[in-house]
């Protein structure tokens, strides 16, 4: 597990797909030593990190196959987490799964993938709210969800989804400006303007 983590960090730092591939192998080997029944949290944490490595590997190779494996890894990771004992890990896993599904949806121009990404973000957000997790994580999930809906609006050329997306970003900007990082706030304002333009364009 530790070897996989070191290789993952180095592979991401150097943008090296070969090192990331070694990280995938290390995590896979670690999973052979544990079972979800005997060590559920450790197994799920390792499965989560495997998903992270697959995602990074996919970004380097621009490969949907690695993204698909990442989605499966994050889905498997959910088996060992629960809202009472590992709410933070549970929310982070749903959010991370949403990110990869969004990458897939954009790459494949697949509306169903994007809709699934939105549902993953919403699940993560719900966990954050119900378990009173740190506000920055809830904001991240909310921003990610709205961003994915913006991509879906563009793909579907839907003025309705675009208008709803604009509403989402307006709420985020109005309520959470003081809690947002400057880059995140800038992103929200850009996405709001884009959503408003799409709503106008697609309504014609």
Account of the protein in words:
By secondary structure, the chain is an all-alpha fold. Helix content is 82%, strand content 0%. The protein contains nine helices and no strands. Helix 5 packs antiparallel against helix 6. The longest helix has 22 residues. The model has no long low-confidence stretch (mean pLDDT 93).
Topology:
Blueprint: H1 2-14, H2 17-31, H3 40-61, H4 64-77, H5 87-108, H6 111-130, H7 135-156, H8 159-176, H9 182-202
Helix pairs in contact: 1-2, 1-3, 2-3, 3-4, 3-5, 4-5, 5-6, 5-7, 6-7, 7-8, 7-9, 8-9
| Rg over alpha carbons | 18 Å
Poorly predicted spans: none
* Major sheet details: none
Based on Cα principal axes, name the global outline: globular
Chain-averaged pLDDT: 93
Percent of residues in helices comes to over 70%
SS-derived structural category: mainly alpha
Number of helices: 9
DSSP strand tally: 0
Give the N-terminus to C-terminus distance in angstroms.
55 Å
> How large is the share of residues in beta strands?
under 5%
Topology as a string of helices (H) and strands (E): HHHHHHHHH
């Amino acid at each position: 597990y530790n070897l996989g983590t070191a290789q993952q960090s180095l592979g991401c730092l150097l943008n090296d797909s070969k090192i990331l591939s070694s990280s995938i192998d290390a995590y896979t080997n670690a999973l052979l030593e544990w079972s979800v029944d005997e060590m559920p949290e450790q197994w799920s944490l390792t499965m989560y990190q495997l998903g992270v490595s697959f995602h990074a590997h996919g970004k380097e190779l621009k490969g949907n196959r690695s993204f698909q494996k990442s989605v499966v890894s994050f889905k498997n990771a959910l088996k060992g987490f629960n809202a009472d004992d590992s709410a933070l890990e549970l929310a982070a896993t749903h959010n991370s799964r949403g990110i990869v599904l969004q990458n897939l949806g954009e790459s494949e121009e697949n509306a169903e993938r994007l809709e699934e990404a939105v549902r993953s973000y919403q699940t993560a957000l719900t966990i954050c709210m119900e378990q009173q997790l740190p506000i920055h994580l809830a904001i991240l999930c909310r921003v990610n969800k709205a961003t994915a809906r913006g991509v879906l609006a563009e793909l579907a050329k839907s003025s309705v989804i675009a208008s709803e997306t604009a509403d989402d970003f307006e709420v985020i900007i109005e309520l959470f400006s003081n809690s947002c990082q400057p880059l995140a706030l800038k992103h929200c304002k850009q996405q709001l303007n884009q959503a408003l333009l799409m709503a106008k364009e697609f309504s014609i």
